[in-house]
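thread from #wetlab-drylab

HS: before we spend reagent money on co-crystallization trials with S-adenosylmethionine, can we at least see a predicted complex? here's what I'd submit
DV: go for it
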Amino acid sequence: MQPPKSKIVAPQTVARKTPVITDWSDIASWYDQLVGEGGSEYHQRVVLPGVLRLLKVEQGQRVLDAACGQGVLARLLAMRDVRVTAFDSSKALIDSARVHNDGLEPSKIRHAEYMVLDATKPFGQFLPQNTFDSAACVLAIQNIHPIQPLCEGVAGALKPGGRFVIAMMHPCFRGPKETFWGWDATDKVQYRRVDRYLLPRKAPIVAHPGMKESHYTWSFHKPIESYVKCLRNAGLLIDAIEEWPSHKTSQPGARQAAENQSRKEIPMFMAIRAIKVGDVNYQPEPEEPQPD
Ligand SMILES: C[S@@+](CC[C@H](N)C(=O)[O-])C[C@H]1O[C@@H](n2cnc3c(N)ncnc32)[C@H](O)[C@@H]1O
């Protein structure tokens, strides 16, 4: 259960119509510990292997890591002799990323550079243009709004034909606060209940639900069509969508088989790969506003 709102420590005072600050500085040390050197369990078992496969990186290539957090993907790429530029709007997390980076083998350290940049601003001016072979945004796009500047900044930095891989919680089944597991005792089926999907919304996510006072981060829900539109507006056309289930399995018990079945059927994550196309001129359509 979510603690009453008065007990939640807001990362900032949220005034109506004022853009919400979304960086994770307030929970940076907790997140750094959670992710650790090599990634959380979900990073290691599901997300990072999928992202690496979709990125198709090769030694010596240049990759942009947008909203990199404490640099878990950037380190992995640097260890593979890929040249990474990674940025996040949280200075505290970029500081952690630099500390982790210093722990890499000396020959790999210089493969990664880290910058404090806001993905909702025209950050492309700080990056070389038409230069990166690929880009990634891992488990972060749902913490950012608007995302049109992110798509445009990435598109400008990519070479023509470059790949942008986005991994996120599945927007259909894992929307914040409005999707839940349920149990149908008659049919003995675990189902996923989806109360809201199509309309954009935002929800505060409490970092430490059991605690008396807890910081929270923002999660922005958008339907899949919004991602397609913002990417296309930026000249990025989708060539792959993958849907990844959780790797977890249930403990032995009466519901074990049904729970395992539903976990396999109802994906936890969605990944999109979009390609920078040179000469397609789409009429841009505005990104849907998020309610206050
Ligand atoms: C769930 S974390 C994911 C971090 C990292 N990609 C990972 O996989 O561990 C979400 C990240 O988005 C970053 N973020 C939120 N808003 C941002 C913005 N406007 N520009 C850049 N980064 C942002 C946060 O600071 C946080 O590091």
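DV: Residues 22-24, 35, 67-69, 72, 88-90, 93, 118-120, 138-140, 143-144 surround S-adenosylmethionine (CB under 6 Å).
HS: ok that's useful, forwarding to the group
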